[in-house]
């Protein structure tokens, strides 16, 4: 029998990720490393990790990496890629990192059309710090800092990064994907591949948002989160390609 | 002999940086250093370097973090409140041990601070330019030739120690024009060779066994935080013997010592000359490296014949002078001559204070 | 005769059971057995039914499952 599916070389041999059971961070790490292997770029990649659960990738992904201050990954990636154009560069950031504290860095890098890829992990919460409200938290959702539920009158509405970035002229590729079922994992992988190919072709800024889960802080079993993503979260964050220049 | 060129401080520093091999600069507009990013924006294309006007000081400092991680010589500059915003990245770069050159053209006080020349950021530069208790070499020039030479040297020092180095200047030094002799520009071959030594650069494993990680030790579980702090502390300690740099002027027979750094050092030196002309036995100690502090210069004084020390700086309350007092450690009287808020320290006032402390000739 | 085969790296399994509900042939399940981290890791309860479609491995977050297929 032939081997048809396995881990990529970008994951440390035998490593067990530090992510919680059912967390799609692991899925994203898996498919991103698979794509990089398919592109033969594992030895020529640098990823810039945001602060939060993303930082757990440091002991999981066997590729060169820079750990950014909270929110600054896109600034670091902008400079790094310009100084090392042969390296495949992606940032790996959560929603608090990318859409709250790093909003200026994200939008500005996108607006300059910097030639790197953003892998944006949107699970609607600050996972590592224990489930605080994120800019992407759904209206009504109770978190540790919105204990009575996210109230639009007080907290505003979830921020839609793909739609926001789509207002800019420079970005080359913008897509929103999820990993909640097999067809979507495959689509997500295709989107990541397209984004990296755009970068390798020098087309400019590429952005893949993953609508993901946080079983631990959502207070759900992993299986329940899959249903919640499909039935509820995706209504707020519709999937699709927003830009493919 | 190299050609003398008449240049403005900000531009002389920038040109010297480029000649030292700076190939990445990110900055954000803030007075009184706007001519620095403007100069880099003009000049970088001709050396195939990269200039980015960041969306903020925070971003531009983090861009330099990214550039340093790629192995190129890089720099950012700002002024006071802008440096505060950069302190996040400065701390990260010190934690990750990356070589970068930083320039602070100081303002005149807390918050936004007046944009006129002052030395209100001595403590920030030498004690804590960010969280975590790291240190960096801080150099402060008194004239533009020194600014040019220090800038050039700062890149070597940053690489030597794989650590940020700060140039502490002020609006005066940045805005004035003087003739300078510029250093030889490093060739592309020399720069390639320098970059090749930076094996920590995270440009891909390229067949290497281990992946490279650039981060503070908090995240990299392979090393302990205490171990790294101890390693860094050892490096800082080494600077106390290897990187002390100060000027002594007419101190052999001096009964009164003036001490000052940066542009105030130049004013003080001129005060010393005038006092000497009047027959006062006055000398000058002018630290050029202000971190680590030139304690040894004060230990070498013959306190048997010294009437006192006058410490001059453009900071209120005193900052540099506190380090002077600590170094003198009660062995003689230390008085201060201070100004602030953009009021350039008056030479006449220094002379007057010196005479008071000197007493009868 | 099974058309496919799954190899499970049980120490990396966190028992999310995504593969269990995804497998179209109900090959996978958990038992009382736990790994070093205390998770009831997934095992092929009915390996003879495996068709090597790799849906389990595709949905598995942690890359626990390696899939082999006849004449792939």
Summarize the structure.
With 245 residues, chain A is an alpha/beta fold.
Secondary structure elements and pairings:
The complex is a heterotrimer of chains A (245), B (361) and C (72).
Chain A: E1 2-5, H1 24-38, E2 45-49, E3 64-67, H2 73-83, E4 88-94, H3 95-101, H4 103-112, E5 117-122, E6 125-126, E7 132-133, H5 152-155, H6 161-165, E8 173-178, H7 182-200, E9 206-211, H8 215-218, H9 222-236, E10 240-244
Parallel strand pairs in A: 2-3, 2-4, 4-5, 5-9, 8-9
Antiparallel strand pairs in A: 6-7, 8-10
Helix pairs in contact in A: 1-7, 2-4, 3-4
Chain B: E1 4-8, H1 9-19, E2 24-27, H2 35-43, E3 50-53, H3 57-69, E4 74-78, H4 81-96, E5 101-106, H5 122-127, E6 137-139, H6 144-161, E7 165-170, H7 171-175, E8 177-181, H8 188-196, E9 213-214, H9 225-242, E10 246-249, E11 256-259, H10 262-277, E12 282-287, E13 289-291, H11 295-299, E14 308-313, H12 320-328, E15 334-338, H13 347-358
Parallel strand pairs in B: 2-3, 2-4, 4-5, 5-7, 6-7, 11-12, 11-14, 14-15
Antiparallel strand pairs in B: 1-8, 6-13, 10-12
Helix pairs in contact in B: 1-2, 1-6, 3-4, 10-13
Chain C: E1 4-8, H1 18-22, E2 28-30, E3 42-44, H2 55-59, E4 65-69
Antiparallel strand pairs in C: 1-4, 2-3
């Amino acid at each position: 029998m032939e081997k048809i599916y396995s881990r990529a070389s970008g994951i440390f041999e035998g490593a067990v990720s530090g992510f919680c059971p059912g967390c799609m961070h692991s899925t994203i790490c898996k498919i991103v490393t698979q794509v990089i292997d398919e592109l033969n770029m594992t030895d020529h990649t640098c990823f810039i990790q945001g602060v939060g659960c993303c930082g757990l990738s440091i002991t999981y992904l066997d590729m060169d990496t820079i750990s950014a201050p909270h929110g600054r990954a896109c600034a670091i990636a902008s400079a790094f890629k310009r100084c090392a154009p042969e390296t495949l560069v992606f940032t790996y950031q959560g929603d608090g990192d990318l859409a709250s504290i790093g909003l200026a860095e994200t939008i500005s890098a996108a607006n300059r059309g910097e030639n790197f890829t953003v892998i944006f992990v949107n699970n609607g919460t600050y996972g590592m710090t224990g489930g605080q409200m994120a800019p992407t938290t759904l209206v009504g959702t109770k978190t540790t800092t919105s204990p009575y539920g996210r109230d639009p009158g007080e907290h505003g509405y979830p921020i839609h990064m793909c739609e926001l970035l789509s207002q800019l002229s420079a970005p080359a590729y913008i897509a929103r994907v999820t990993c909640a079922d097999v067809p979507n994992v495959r689509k997500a992988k295709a989107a990541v591949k397209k984004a990296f190919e755009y970068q390798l072709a020098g087309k400019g800024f590429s952005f893949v948002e993953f609508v993901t889960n946080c079983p631990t802080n959502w207070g759900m079993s992993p299986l329940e989160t899959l249903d919640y993503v499909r039935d509820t979260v995706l209504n707020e964050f519709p999937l699709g390609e927003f830009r493919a220049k | 002999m190299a050609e003398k060129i008449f240049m403005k401080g900000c531009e002389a520093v920038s040109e010297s940086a480029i000649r030292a091999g700076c190939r990445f600069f990110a900055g954000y507009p803030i007075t009184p250093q706007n001519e620095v990013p403007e100069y880099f924006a003009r000049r970088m294309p001709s050396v195939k370097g990269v200039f980015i006007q960041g969306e903020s000081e925070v971003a531009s400092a983090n861009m330099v973090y990214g550039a340093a991680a790629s192995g190129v010589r890089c720099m950012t500059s700002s002024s006071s409140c802008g440096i505060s915003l950069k302190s996040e990245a400065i701390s990260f770069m010190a934690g990750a041990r990356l070589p970068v050159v930083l320039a602070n053209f100081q303002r005149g006080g807390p918050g936004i601070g007046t944009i006129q020349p002052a030395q209100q950021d001595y403590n920030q530069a030498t004690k804590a330019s960010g969280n975590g208790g790291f240190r960096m070499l801080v150099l402060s020039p008194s004239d533009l030739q020194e600014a040019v030479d220090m800038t050039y040297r700062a890149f070597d020092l940053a690489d030597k120690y794989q650590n940020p180095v700060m140039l502490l200047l002020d609006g005066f030094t940045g805005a004035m024009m003087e003739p300078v002799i510029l250093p030889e520009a490093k060739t592309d071959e020399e720069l390639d060779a320098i970059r090749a030594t930076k094996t920590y650069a995270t440009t891909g494993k390229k067949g290497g066994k281990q992946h490279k990680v650039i981060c503070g030790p908090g995240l990299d579980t392979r090393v302990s935080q205490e171990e790294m702090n101890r390693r860094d502390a050892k490096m800082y300690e080494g600077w106390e013997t290897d990187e002390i740099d100060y000027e002594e002027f007419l101190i052999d027979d001096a009964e009164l010592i003036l001490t000052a750094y940066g542009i105030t050092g130049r004013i003080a030196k001129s005060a010393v000359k005038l006092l000497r002309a009047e027959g006062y036995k006055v000398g000058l100690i002018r630290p050029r490296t202000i971190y680590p502090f030139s304690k040894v210069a004060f230990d070498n004084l013959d306190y048997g014949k010294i009437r006192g020390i006058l410490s001059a700086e453009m900071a209120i309350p005193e900052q540099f002078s506190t380090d002077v007092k600590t170094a003198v450690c009660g062995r003689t009287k230390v008085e201060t001559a201070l100004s602030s808020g953009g009021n350039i320290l008056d030479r006449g006032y220094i002379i007057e204070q010196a005479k008071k402390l000197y007493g009868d000739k | 005769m099974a058309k496919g085969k799954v190899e499970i790296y049980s120490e990396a399994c966190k028992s999310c059971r995504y593969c269990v509900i995804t497998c179209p042939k109900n090959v996978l399940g958990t038992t009382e057995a736990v790994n070093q981290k205390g998770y009831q890791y997934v095992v092929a309860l009915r390996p003879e039914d495996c068709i090597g479609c790799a849906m389990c491995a595709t949905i598995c977050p942690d890359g626990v499952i390696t899939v082999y297929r006849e004449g792939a």
